[in-house]
Each structure stands twice: as structure tokens, then as C-alpha cells.
Design goal:
This protein is mainly α. It contains 16 helices and ten strands. Helices cover 48% and strands 12% of the residues. Strand 6 and strand 7 form a beta hairpin.
Amino acid sequence: MASYQRRGENSFLLVVEAGYTATGKRKKRTKTIRVEDEKLLRTTKRLKDYIEKELYIFQSEVEAGQYIKPEKLKLNDFVDMWHKKHAEKILAVKTHRSYREKLDNYILPYLGHKKLEEIKPMHIVDFLDYVSQPGSAIRTKQLSDSTIYEIDKTLRVVLNKAVEWQLLNKSPMDGLSRPKIKKKKMKYYDEDDVIQFLHAMYKENIVWRLLFITSAISGMRRGEVVGLRWSDYYFEDGYILLTRSIPFFENGQPYIKRTKTDEDSRIITMPDWYMEEMKIFKDHWEDEKELNGDDWRGGEHDYVFHSGEGIPYTPETVTGTWARIKNRHGLKNIRLHDLRHTMVTYLLSQGESILNVQERAGHSSSKITTDIYGHVTKKVRKTTADRFNKFDPRKFVNNSSTIRFTGKVRRRAKLDVSTLEEQKNSERGD
């Protein structure tokens, strides 16, 4: 048996009978839900349908033995519910993996045993202080600012879902400030570094040469370069149509997803010399595929950069190879991702518009571009103003007709304008 009754203006008590006790007394499970949608509260039939749906879900949980009273629900148990009923269904695989790693390695070992309603703001403060100490977590070294920030973010996400599901009235993290991340100085290659980089690339295998040149000139993210196929290349029009990314491998196979900002596609124009190089490489690629014969494992997926049998490189393989090439040629030590920063920085320094750079880099808004590359845009703005220096009147206007200011700055400037005085006297007939 299941029923419900209205308890307040927007609250309803769900009641489900769960058998009998050893003494023959009926066992009941109850749950209070609140309806925040005012329009729903004013519609009798829709409200009735909504409450009955919630009652059915509640009854199913009780009968399956999955329902735990909120006052007894521990964070460990709630996180299990969160994984099954939300994260696995809604979140991107990589995002869910990241949250799970933070929960399993840091959050649950410290807070998992606590009941949800017992977790207070000070517990959170103590926890974040604990994991910020060297040797307190699974790593012996002190966690980075960004890792602490992601741990804080993960816990907020989980507790906010508990509030949404009405297991908590308020998150204990409400009002707590976010951990600070120290802004690191961005690394990238300047023009001389780029020339050295290109010299080094032409001493490497053609596959790695063109993979890293593609990264540097296109500004693609690592997973986007790994996921490139020949069908993405439009040689006659000189551009790449980017539609996918391979952020990681799962069970030995590439996990394919849309690009990071989930745009349908991104057009990236490339220089003529690059497209000519890629045409030559494509001929080499097709010969290699033919030589593989039955050993070809790429199927119909014409991945541009692969290890020899058609399966694209893993992102980790690309990062490791970049590190070895840097060391081998003594290149300036920057991360693979910093080749992307190199592209953006170079274009902005050359006066390319923020909008064009934003679209090429795949940023969801121009604000992201200016926030990340503010040091460059500030320099470009100064350069833009400097273009007007050629119109400095002192360079070509006769000194006798210029206006000179005298007096102190804190007072209104007095004008010493000899030519104007002469003009006034002449008009008065003096």
C-alpha cells in the first residue's frame, strides 16, 4: 500500500507500507517532498500526476530495499546513488572519471563515514586543510592548487545534488569560499623558438613531424589532433573541418566524443605549404595501408596519425613522444598543450581579431580568449595606439601655431597662444 497527503503549502508526505514487525506491527516508510514550481502547484491534474510518479518511485525503492532514510544516509551511500542515478547517465565519461577519482582517493576516505545531515561547514574546512598538507593524501607530495580546487568542486557537485533531491535543506559548502589557484606564467614559443622547433621536426619521422606541426599551427587540443581523419581535410579549400576528439582510450579502443565546447564543427584554415605536405603524407599513408593488407585494424576509419595498423595513437603516447623529441633536440621546455598557446599568442601579437582567434581555438566565448591571453591583448592594445604616433603634430606642424600649456597640473592650464592673440588684435583693428 502506498499513499500521500499534503502537509503544507508545497510539501507532501509519501507513505509506503513495508510489511510487519516481529510483533505484528505495521512498518511504514515515509518521505517528504517539496514542490518548488508554483505553476505546478496551481494545476490540480499535473500536480497529482507528479506526486503519484514520485510515490511510485519511492515505493519501488522501498520494495527493492534501496531506500535509506535521509537522517541515516551516509555520504558513502549517497555517492553510490549519485553514480547510478545521475553521473553514469548524464555526465561525460571523462568528467565522471575525474569526479570518481577525487571521491575515491580524497573525499570518501575522510568524509564517507559521516551521515549527510551531520556534515557541517567546519568539517569541510578541516578536510580541505588536511588534503592540502604534504603526505596526507594518496600522494606523498603536496597536492597542486588546481587539484585542491577540483576536489572542492567535486564535493560541491555531489552535495548540491543532495539538496536538489531534497535530502539536505542546504549544502554545508554554501558560503564557503573556493580554494585559490595561483596563476602560472604561460609558456609558449616565440618566433625564434618556432623556427628551431620546425628545424627539429624535419629531423623526425614524417608522422610525428606532421602531428606536432598540426598541433602548433592549428591550435587543436591533443585529443582533437589524435582524432583527425582524412575525410576532415578539404585540400582544395585549404581547411580542416574539426568534428570530434579522442580524449582517452577505453578497453583498447578510442573513445570518440564531440569537441570540448560541443560545437557541431570547427573550420580551421591552414597555410598552403602545410596542405602540400599533407598531400604528400596522404600518398605515403595509403601505401602503408595497402602494405598492411589483412593486418589493417583501422577499418573504415581513416585516422591520419596512427602507429602503423590504423588505430590512432593514444593521447598518452603523443605526450610521451613530445617529451622525448624536446629533449633530443634541446627545444625550449614547454608542454604539448603549450603549442596551442603558441598559436593563439602568435596570432594575437600579429593583430588578428579576438573573434577570429576565439573561433580557431574553439573557445566558447571571446571572454575566455581575453581572460587567458590578457597579457597579449594588453600588448596589442598598446601597439594599436602606437600606430597613431606617426600623426604626432610636433613632427610636422609649425611650432608658432601650436598650443602650449603652462602652469601646474593641479590648476586649470593657462593657454599661451600667441597666434590666437595676434588674430584677435587684428580683428579689433589694433
